[in-house]
Amino acid sequence: GSVMEKVLQRRSLRMRNMQRSWQESPEGRRMLDFRKSLPAFREKERLLQAIARNQVVVISGETGCGKTTQLPQYILESEIESGRGAFCSIICTQPRRISAMTVSERVSSERGEPLGESVGYKVRLEGMKGKNTHLLFCTSGILLRRLLSDRNLDGITHVFVDEIHERGMNEDFLLIVLKDLLPRRRDLRLILMSATLNADLFSSYFGGAPMIRIPGFTYPVRALFLEDILEMTGYRLSSFNQIDDYGQEKMWKTQKQLAPRKRKNQITTLVEEALNKSNFENYSSRVHESLSSWIPDCIGFNLIEAVLCHICRKERLGAVLVFMTGWEDISCLRDQLKAHPLLGDPNRVLVLTCHGSMATAEQKLIFEKPPPNVRKVVLATNMAEASITINDIVFVVDCGKAKETTYDALNNTPCLLPSWISQASARQRRGRAGRVQPGECYHLYPQCVYEAFAEYQLPELLRTPLNSLCLQIKSLQVESIGGFLSAALQPPEPLAVQNAVDFLKMIGALDENENLTHLGKFLSVLPVDPKLGKMLIMGAIFRCFDPILTVVAGLSVRDPFLLPQDKKDLAGTAKSRFSAKDYSDHMALVRAFEGWKDAEREGSAYEYCWRNFLSLQTLQAIHSLRKQFTYILKDAGLLDTDGATNNRLSHNQSLVRAVICSGLFPGIASVVHRETSMSFKTMDDGQVLLYGNSVNARYQTIQYPWLVFGEKVKVNTVFIRDSTGVSDSILILFGGKLDYGAMAGNLKMLEGYIDFFMDPSLAECYVKLKEELEKLLQK
Ligand code: ADP
Ligand code: MG
């Protein structure tokens, strides 16, 4: 004890010396001056005191005031200054990987240290921390995972939960667990940080915890809505034909018949009419739907292009931030802008993108000053709304939508629609323009639509399937999942919980009594969706690991096959070249990935991707995820050290197909052939359609009675995305649980079906597999 104490004391002194010498260096002083200019600094003493005196404190303040980068740092600095640096251990959670990474990088540079010294980060499958790390930024998922094995968070002194206003599922989950932990860890400090005003909700959840508000200063931002924008840009649209070019949608077409001056009022009237016709009292999900379908994309790329043009030609200097719905849209728009005479000219406009999976070099550029007389334009997803602050933004373009998953518990279907954002989000987006000087925000929708937005967004816990969450709750040794979740800020519907439990039983992660099975235990530590985790384990057991690894990595990153709006057909044809008549999007993905590896060896990766409508960046992400999964499975003892053994059967297409089926079950649809067409029915007898980009959508007939699919998505109608054809025997053998009993039964049947795999060498393999399974599942 006392030896350790001495070591820590000595280290604390060293930390203090280092901190002081940095703060006294010229560079350190400059950094300190900047930090002192942030609004959070004025509240520093008050904050430190509140945290010292209360177990829980709720802090709110406008985005950019210095919550994330400063507050945890204040604690660290004051502990170090008081000679207790080595004794403290601070965790600060972020909802997104990317913000954990950028923020930790920023804080370590503010401290004049390389990342991984006193400040580090950890996100899923990646991290940078060392033995001297005392302030760790991590995703909320990582802290939850840690809580599974370390129920009391031993050794942790402070936990910051950031961005709680977003009401992410992991944050809501964390709060339940931490609330339960606090009485057991009287010395632990919990600090909740939020950007907007509903701090009292969190305070009362923690029995009236004190709230501190950091007053911020931002410049006024003028809000322009679609009607204003039309007027501003309208005079340049000298003829209505041009308007048509600017958006092919219904609304614009209607405008064609109207006199120019009437345009503005007419648009408002049209939208209002649509709203009235449906006679909605309040905002409801139906309004959501009707609005989305009524003005589908008046928000087209062309409108954004027109607004950007207007800003670049007519407005003062200043960077532009464009909020879009997702990576797909961002990359399409970026490509479109490249061809534009003004916006595509790198000497005048610097177009950058900002989204969850961008490369580090590009991340840095976003924060940097552009060359003189070049205007910076950043195309961003929702993440630039609150988690990332770009200082020099003067203009914001807000498309009014965000991709969010909603969950329909009744049909047990997740829906992924770009849907209208909330008023709180719209205001938040607007605020991003007023950081350095008065700004302007171009909302690409009429004001009356804004007024129909929900005030706040629904918490994620109430709008996503709970499969993964329930598995994690179970591994906290919780008796009743429903009971546990009823302690949430806003508990989910019982039906949603029941669906998740049923699902976990179906895949064999829970037994009949809702206890974790061996498989369930494995799945709860693998950082992927339980379904995909199961597929990985099966791929390892059945010795066809490599192709399965690609499939799982692909499904957890995103589809590398691009689908540009204007070249859908060409892209579809390009993808179908990878399908080799085996009726499988997953196999097509495997081939495309392997083709890319070959092309890379020959130095033609770029051409390969271009020719085949593949995203180089996504393929790279899949590549690195593959490596990380391999590492984790090795670590869990599920892989042989000898790669060849794991892949002995990788060439066996039927087996790969079977393992895909085992992972994706119960995502299964029957193929119903009619004379000239096909239709597809899921297990619950729902009709589904194939996504346009699926290789299976290109066939007249499918040579398999079943399709397994990863995802059912509701976009007006229900679609299935990627699918693979499977036979009756595969479905019987592999569509089900992986508990030993059932598996042994399956293996017996397999022996009977031996020639269906057309590989006699498998027979001997089954005996081995049986032994292995036995060993594996008894561990
Ligand atoms: P909050 O969490 O309150 O939204 P942050 O702590 O993230 O605010 O940021 C505070 C300020 O620090 C920002 O306004 C910005 O000036 C600066 N800042 C944050 N991240 C970076 C970065 N990566 N590069 C440069 N400056 C940054
Ligand atoms: Mg922040």
Automatic annotation (TrEMBL):
The keyword rRNA-binding does not apply. Its EC number is 3.6.4.13. It catalyses: ATP + H2O = ADP + phosphate + H(+). Residues 48-215 form the Helicase ATP-binding domain. Keywords: ATP-binding, Helicase, Hydrolase, Nucleotide-binding. Residues 303-477 form the Helicase C-terminal domain. It is an enzyme of class 3 (hydrolase). The keyword Membrane does not apply. Belongs to the DExH box helicase family. This is RNA helicase. The lineage of its organism: Eukaryota, Viridiplantae, Streptophyta, Embryophyta, Tracheophyta. The chain holds residues 224 to 1002 of 1159 of the full protein.
